[in-house]
## 1
Amino acid sequence: DSCIQFTRHASDVLLNLNRLRNRDILTDVTILVNRQQFRAHKTVLMACSGLFYTIFTDSHKCNLNAISLDPKVDPEGFAILLEFMYTSRLTLKESLIMAIMNTAIYLQMDHVVDTCHRFIKSSDPS
Amino acid sequence: YEGVNTIKEMGRSIHEIPRQD
């Protein structure tokens, strides 16, 4: 038996999902972070974040079309993590690393938290 | 897929949604 593995398929699907997000096609939720609004697909959010998985598997919350995050969440940190969910690319800036890491802890994105820890360790001169 | 002869296809797998119409 033979099987053809399309090696780019996962990234091609993600690219298309990101284009859909950018064009606001079939986005089904608005995430409110302080006063900033982010449109996204619930399925992508819950596939990447333990917090969103818990929210959208709750039958009382899964139909909400707007979710407010804790006001302590930094909108810039959230924007970087949302971009990561849709692109696989995490932009780590030293000035924002704590905001990104705290937001990743809040969103329960454990592997991103580990990566932030490693980034902080590697950039600490001591 | 153990025991299956897997052939790698490196090109695009699906159509590309345009950035904007």
Note: Residues 4 and 17 of chain B are 32 Å apart (CA to CA).
## 2
Amino acid sequence: MNVFRLLGDISHLLAIIILLLKIWKTRSCAGISGRSQVLFAVVYTARYLDLFTSYISAYNSIMKLVFLAASYGTIYLMFIKFKASYDHNHDTFRIEFLILPCVLLSLLINHEFSPLEILWTFSIYLESVAILPQLFMVSKTGEAESITSHYLFALGSYRALYILNWIYRYYAESHYDVIAIVAGIVQTVLYCDFFYLYITKGIYGQ
Amino acid sequence: DPDQGLHDEL
């Protein structure tokens, strides 16, 4: 563990908590892409199956459970409890165009052709594009509530911090994982446009 | 190549 990865995990946790609070407090999921949230639940489910097979640390196991619980909790709030506030009309990104290529790519490019490793690779590829429906929705509505933009900023920062973690681990532990690094760079680059808007003029209330 | 199989990151 290093400070970059710890800050990244905290930023990730913060993003998920901000989102849950936003939906719970405002009792509305307006402006939030349910499709992206479904993709995140798929990402964590596919990636954290090793909860049952390999123990890394208490921190690792607890965080995996928290991320799984929070992502399914968000889906419950969006599609069941506050389903009336879900903005179907603007959440239209075709997620099958994200899932299928990730499935194919994970079968072609992976570290080991085993079920758990393929699922992990699929989750890495899918996570890198999982935010697209949300970014697409924000661009369609032309704005985002300030709380939603803070959510996106924290979520985008998490993987940017992980890139610093990978640089650190390469030099300090000569450990690197090309698949995670390339996907993490793609994921962070997708936020660049949003980061620019968030930092220059706070995209809410445009 | 790094020691695969064990992904210690979230």
Note: Chain B has a mean pLDDT of 71.
## 3
Amino acid sequence: TIGMIALDSNGNLAAATSTNGLQFRIPGRVSDSALIGSGAFADNEVGGACATGDGDVMQRFVPSYNTVEAMRRGSSPEEAALDSIKRIAKFYPNFTGAVLALDRNGRHGAACNGMDKFPYSVMQNGWTDPQIFEIPCL
Amino acid sequence: SDSLPIVVNTWPFVNATRNAFNKMQNQGGTCVDGVEVGCRTCEDEQCDGSVGWGGHPDESSETTLDSLIIDAKTMSVGAVANLHRIKNAVGVARAVMNYTRHSILVGESATKFALDMGFEQTDLHSNQSIEQWKNWLDNLSCQPNFRRNVSPDPSKSCGPYTPDKFGTTSFDIETKKRPIKEHD
């Protein structure tokens, strides 16, 4: 799955996802990636977030919406993503997943569970190439 | 901010990041154009096997696609789920946003919508996905799978399955560890 957030020079935000889902799923199953608030969410006044991992578990907690709302209340992108991950891990301590967030000022952060580390990619004005950031998971 | 425009995406899919950024910075695209191009890049490159055609077959061997796009300036949204036989899922999601008042279309009806909107229909199987599915079916007795509380025992057998009349209905909260590249 890819989840992506873009913030342009005018302060406008967009988010998108694309996936082919989990292997050997039951036909008809829908992933979190297609669901607004779960796979991704964005609000021009706050920022955006997107999620990746075990979508059957993650979509129950609407983590992207929760992350944006946490940023609206003043959390940093990293803190906001961590809040969403912790809410899921409380019920599913072994779940695999990550949440990535970008605020309206261009600050980014992520949190994850069930992996050693989670890599994400960033490209911004003034850079010649994207950079990979890796964060340790819970 | 001096850092704008900026693009971030899950996993180290740098070509997607670069193409999204270039769309905004060098080609006059909007942020919506940027995320569409970025996700389309991964669909074409079949990023780590978890995006695009030819990966992660379902129980019946078919690859289906899910996608979502959000324009936060207008809170316009388009999404597709369980999309069959169309490679450009994020393009169809954007078409849902641009050409309908709905938020999400699913299944064969989403495919029909995509065809009406001019998208090309094509087989999403790959040699690899067919091999993976055959191995799962023939050599691994359909393990792992997502069934529970059914008969025959889904931890040992393939279907077809029916509700387990003799067992209790359990809802364990344990999630099975899955390969790192198998994610939504």
Note: Chain A touches chain B through 76 residues (CB under 8 Å).
